[in-house]
Inverse folding.
């Protein structure tokens, strides 16, 4: 039987999920014997482009998909009159696009657990220090207030569509010093920020009955074998030749 | 079209591949837009048990498998008269088991690139400092000389079977201070040791025409889009509704 998989669909917060201390790596490590974590992250993408390519993106995923995290909005929320204007998407369209993506995922994989993840908060000072190349304006191209508008919209769409939401925008801001502790350039996650997101995803999956305890481990665990007769654990298996 | 995948089949060196700084995470990050990295690591397993369950293990993998790394031997090489005796497998049987696993992989996925990875070197001082629970003997249950016998056997089987080999046992020992730099407990890899293995796997995959450059990126890269008309990159796609 094919192992269940958890697909991570999103922008750079997702594409970087297997970087240093990444939340995707932590998930893959957490579920090392029970579920596959499949990366479908597209840096720079907003929901307008994601909604267009979502069908193509999921068509590249094989197997038994149990859950999908959907994390967009950081790019949609880029201000329309600053350096990242080409990525901006109005919030009404952002909602429509998220709804369309949810509907497509449910059509493709009936019964799949969808988890919408809001964009993270923005540290404007960090964005000023780490601007995109060729942006000499000195003005941040994203603000925390704008990201918050999209985060609230994301949570609302999740409620309307009957899917789970992780409000990482609110959650992270509960920690004093979140700006530098969780964001390495005002936008992308540090290892600590990745840890927060990882834990929220684990909680959401547990809530959806996809906890480590609920999923069967693939093949006998070494710690469960009888040291005096370890081969006994494999009595149902044939040696390959 | 389903993305090609790279399956990591092995013992704890593989099961831990998505831990901190792990070689599996680095691979998944490296191939973030072009290949899926699928974990099939079984801590504590030797090739006797792996050969018995290999069919079941690969049956849980969906999709288009392009390459498989096979990394066993660290447990087979455990000394037959010390604390990890139940894991020991004689080297002649180790060879047979590796051959059987290679043959099974080729039957299951004709044309698949198989890469045999030797066990890493053993730092006996590290094993004395971090013995398994209930081992009060003060004697390491593995030696570097024994691991070397299995490493040479692994390289030889690879040559006989016409598959690639990564001799991580020899490679790591070329670096002065390998004992503590690459092994955290005399056996398992530090982030630096993971880095060495990651780089060797990338070289081997490149040699097998599975380099980052050879594999198509999934969907247009943001950096390739026209900032004045980014949607143009998606002209062939339909928005989902």
């Amino acid at each position: 039987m094919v192992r269940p998989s958890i697909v991570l669909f999103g922008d750079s917060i997702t594409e970087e999920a297997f970087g240093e201390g990444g939340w995707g790596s932590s998930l893959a490590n957490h579920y090392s014997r029970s579920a596959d974590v499949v990366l479908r992250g597209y840096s720079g993408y907003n929901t307008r482009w994601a909604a267009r390519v979502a069908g193509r993106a999921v068509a590249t995923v094989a197997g038994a998909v149990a859950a999908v995290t959907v994390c967009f909005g950081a790019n949609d929320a880029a201000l329309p009159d600053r350096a990242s204007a080409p990525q901006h998407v109005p919030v009404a369209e952002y909602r429509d696009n998220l709804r369309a993506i949810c509907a497509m995922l449910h059509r493709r994989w009936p019964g799949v657990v969808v988890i919408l993840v809001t964009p993270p908060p923005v540290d404007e000072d960090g964005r000023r220090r780490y601007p995109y190349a060729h942006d000499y304006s000195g003005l941040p191209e994203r603000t925390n207030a704008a990201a918050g508008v999209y985060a609230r919209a994301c949570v609302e769409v999740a409620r309307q569509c009957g899917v789970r939401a992780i409000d990482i925008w609110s959650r992270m801001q509960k920690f004093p010093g979140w700006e530098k502790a969780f964001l390495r350039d005002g936008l992308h996650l540090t290892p600590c920020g990745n840890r927060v997101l990882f834990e929220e995803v684990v909680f959401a999956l547990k809530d959806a009955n996809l906890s480590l305890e609920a999923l069967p481990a693939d093949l006998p665990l070494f710690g469960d074998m009888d040291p005096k007769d370890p081969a006994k654990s494999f009595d149902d298996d044939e040696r390959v030749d």
About this structure: Strands of chain A lie at 4-10, 36-41, 64-71, 113-117, 164-166. The CA atoms of residues 186 and 217 of chain A lie 39 Å apart. Chain A has a mean pLDDT of 94. Chain A touches chain B through 65 residues (CB under 8 Å).
